[in-house]
Amino acid sequence: MGDFSGETISVIDRHFINDLLDQGERQDGRAFDEYRDISIELDVVPAKAEGSAIVHIGNTTVVAGVKVLIGEPYPDTPDEGVTMVTAEMPPIASPLFELGPPKEDAIELARVVDRGVRESETVDVKRLCIEPGKSVYMVFCDIYPLEYDGNLIDASSLAANAALLRTRFPEMRWEDDQAVPTGKEIAVPIRNLAIECTVARIGKHLIIDPTLREEMVQDCRLTMAVDEDDNFTALQKGGGVGPMSLDQIDAAMDMALERSKDIRKLLLDAVHESEGPE
Questions:
Q1: Domain-by-domain residue ranges, the chain?
Q2: HEC letters along 7-71
Q3: Is the dihedral of CA 67, 73, 78, 83 positive or negative?
Q4: Which fold has domain 6-275?
Q5: Which pTM was predicted?
Q6: Is the separation of the CB atoms in 255 and 199 below 8 Å?
Q7: 14-53 pLDDT, tens per residue?
């Protein structure tokens, strides 16, 4: 996902990718501003999560699961619930991933996806409060890549959003100094759905949704979260130490703005289809 060393791809392949881009082409035939095929499957692990989804972007596959627990609020936000995104990068997804404690790439993945959720205020955390200062819902979203062929951030963000949209959990009320179930199920209070789009710079070229081979030769990448009102709620540069000019940032933002509309529609259509006719 991150800044891979030059040893992971040959010099010949590096020149080949750059030469193709100079000719206006990509290895898989896509336009520079075109995503690979995207598919979304919902409620994939109902026995283990209150909400879940698998997202495929090309050959990259990510599963996200949401668990909702009851806990105490943070002292500085007594009337707000908690949302948190975590990520693992298991070796089953790629030989580039290693066993052991979360590495830098896993921490970065979780932080970028988490920032897209928090900064856009995707979840109305005040509506996650059961009793101010006493009890709140705590919404945890776990990201787990199954196959890695580039652009884990966008796939993970989309999977997280899909899982949050499908999450259902027992409603609680405060009674006799404790949280007790009401017997009803409720949904996560979604207020502003942001879509994260990643654009890579390779030489003088900008491409959206880079594959693994393209990531290996990228100078840097820019991930942008675009909300329902076309506001950019979060930006994160990574994937290399190369700079991006202001003109390149503007161009990348234009790409993200356009593609986020398509992806949001795809996500909402998948959710509505899974809910069936009313």
A1: 6-275
A2: HHCCHHHHHHHHHHHHCCCCCCCCCCCCCCCEEEEECCCCCCCCEEEEEEECCEEEEEEEEEEEE
A3: negative
A4: Ribosomal Protein S5; domain 2 (3.30.230)
A5: 0.93
A6: yes
A7: 889 999 999 999 999 999 999 999 999 999 998 889 999 9
